[in-house]
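Table S2 (text version). Query chain:
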Amino acid sequence: MSRIKGKLALITGASSGIGRACARRFADEGAGLVLWARRKDPLTELAAELTRSGAVVRTASVDVRSRESVTRAAEALLADGAVPDILLNNAGLASGLAKIQDGSFDDWDVMIDTNVRGLLHVTRSLLPHMIARGKGHVVNIGSSAGHQVYPMGNVYHATKFAVRALNEAINVDLAGTPLRCSSVDPGYVKTDFAKVRFHGDEARARKVYEGFTPLAAEDVADLVSYIVNLPDHVNILEARIFPTAQRNQHVIHKTS
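Corresponding structure-token output:
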């Protein structure tokens, strides 16, 4: 049984990876969709695919780093009376891998602006309307990198520790309301994550996932689906998901 059938789910970073997999899963379960992403073409292609399967889909080209971009898209949505039942803060990335003393200011800015400010922009724009309506579920895609650091991940870790703190703080701030807030924190997931981190270096990105079977985006979507389909009185505050080969940030069993 799908408890999200007929509900409206807004997904940021919906054009690829975990966001795209969650869009497909939610559509399969009968939810209406609002898909936001910076890249218009893959977003349009995904919307066309889901529409052919019977889903009702709205899209907007939104850069979560820009408060103005988020505000415009949120106001347009709300003007149509469309308040999300599910807000999936998925947009996020890693950019670069370097020791703090060698780090790139540009890489740092894009991670902080996307992973932290972006989540804040979207949540602040929509959460008051969810509260006013008296129902809703916020799901934040965090990372195992928000629990334990690895070498040269410094600022990316800082942003994901911040997501973890915000998830906890949002839950506290929502006390006394029927709204829920959950964080899903994956380990290694084979998406474009590594390719983005290494600025398009596909050969380097492929090496990240060699020697073991990482999670697929669909595995994370399965967990997100489980969480949003729970009864209203059940709130999963935080869920960590790893491939079986990975036991923490440093222990990954790889074959030669």
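Notes on Table S2: The chain has one domain: 8-241. The longest helix spans residues 105-133.
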